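Two records follow; treat each independently.
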Amino acid sequence: AFASNDVRLTVEQINGGYSSGDTFFFKVIIENLSNNDISYFKINYDLPDDLTWSNWQPQSYTQQGAADGELVTVPPEAPRTSKQDGNALPSPEVTRNPTLVPGQMDDYVASLQNKLMDLGYLDIDEPTCYYGSATANAVQLFQRQHGLDMDGLAGQNTLRLLFSDNAEKYVMKLDTQGLDVENLQQQLELLGYYTKAVDGYYGDATQEAVMAFQTRNRLEPDGLAGERTLERLFSPDAVPAAHVAREQIRRANIQTMINTAYAQLGKKYVLGAVGPNSFDCSGLVYYCLKMAGSSRGRYNAAGYSSVSDWQKIKSIDNVQVGDLLFFYNNKYTKVGHVGIYIGGGLMIDASASNGKVVCRPCRTYYWRKHFACARRPW
């Protein structure tokens, strides 16, 4: 943009792009400017037509396009010395419109993003220099936390506070409202801590859920969803509520039992055998329960059907995966057979008539007629 090839122009961002004068400004170091170069500055920074090196005094100048009322006088530096004659030359400070807006792309946006990332409002891998939707949302979160107008624009008041010692780190707390609170509630609900409506409002119920999560995960129970709490909440290390933890264990046990039963398909039926190479019907159940972590002893089919601390299901249409199915003998005098329900109307059982462990339908006319009950061992 300059006429002279020997002109050196250095542009630096002070304090990450934000000055103590409450606005962005360039620190311009100009050496060996030609008259054409001075004309360039006159045009682009609205300088007086009669400006020369002799009357150029350090002060604030308005870059064309700057909004009214957004200029701040920046104290000049000590004059620099010309390489040509050794005389002192002033180093003018030039201000610009400080507001950063969506769609803007430059180094100022990168400085803004870096600061928002440091405070936890923006979650991106690295600054992009582009003021997109993620940056605008981060600015809104910062504005929300500091009681500013949530317009998503990085204006003078927002920037002044953001680059000050009073800037707070990102945290969700009582009376906060937004999509981030909704995501928080959903995660707390998934882990069994939050049972109210997911509405995006950080009320008493959300605060209590956060405190319960913090307590169980050995974090300070302050009720604030800050950096450490959020890191744990959205990690594989998050400890769920006790009842959810029990259900997770239950499901894992059931899956292990089913997988074990599948692995025995085709093995020989032998009366009284408990595996691993042959089974009778109750021996297969004992083996699968044991492999899934149960400490229940070895009973016959009638014995397993009588375990009172296992939930009893009276209809074969209400059974769930992992339930044990019990059937009467042909004379209906006692329970004589047991199988493991694997879903889809199927069971795995050690069949005396087939001479091996099989998978077959359990809701046929015969099995419905002989159905005694089911028990839920997990």
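The next record belongs to a different protein.
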Amino acid sequence: MELNLRNPIVFFDLETTGTNILRDKIVEISYIKVMPSGAETERTLRINPGIPIPAEATAVHHITDEDVKECPTFKQVAQDLAKVFLGCDIAGFNSNRFDVPLLMQEFSLAGVDIDLARHKFIDVQNIFHKMEQRTLVAAYKFYCGKDLEEAHSANADTRATYEVLKAQLDRYPSLKNDIAYLSEFSCHNKNADLMGRIIFNNEDKEVFNFGKYKGEEVEKVFRRDPGYYSWMMQGEFAENTKQVITRIRMRMKSLYNHVKRQTYNSWHNRRNSCIQIGSASASDDKSRSRSTGSHDSVGKRVYHSCDSVGIKRQTGCKRVLHRQHR
């Protein structure tokens, strides 16, 4: 079954120096870009990772240091790759947990700002695991009736992933041929960051998905334990995760400043009203004193009384803001 596409979709696969998203590097990337018309663009790039490729990684994908020594670094091809993914939905095999976060980490380290917040992600492995519980080699054999030649080459794995998704749509009538549906179906959680460290709860609020604050709202934790933000920013977390918690913190700060401005403006307007009332009363008193010879200080008392109220109100506002900041 051919895919029902509203946007272009990029199927991609990475071969890397290892499985640590924060420390390992890409040595090969292969992608197939499929347009809504069905037209395909396919490309495979070898990448010089800038670090030695461990023997255990070479044993899996058969790429050696000698193979990539004359290849470009990721930084040299990052801008062109970002254009490939721009405006496209994204699919892969185990991509939500590994390929997408590692690719975004590489983009970030290369200084390329690419926002995937509005993109849809389809993880074909998650669909397979929900339906059959197998590996990509078994999935290819099961759905497509073929043996996967050259398994763990990025190009072969990318092509197999694309064909498996189409075969899954043929096999399971319950699966809708709709990218938004498949994206939601193939995700375990509704992630706020690509690593799934921060997820959305049922109320669409960001909560921690790890550690001692797992299940708690990020904003509430940052108010109660401000040092936790600093710990995460200095720790071994993906750049995308750090960007997400920074946006949350900036949003909190913006809300605090907005409330502070509103409270100050309210106090300032009330104080001006009191001053105007005091001035009017003083003017009336002066008129009466000229005609009666008395020196009534009602106007002055009204002014000082209002000013005192304003000061108390301002102090109260500061207390409220202090409680909200905490």
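Discussion point: DSSP finds twelve helices and seven strands in the chain. How would you locate this feature using only the token line?
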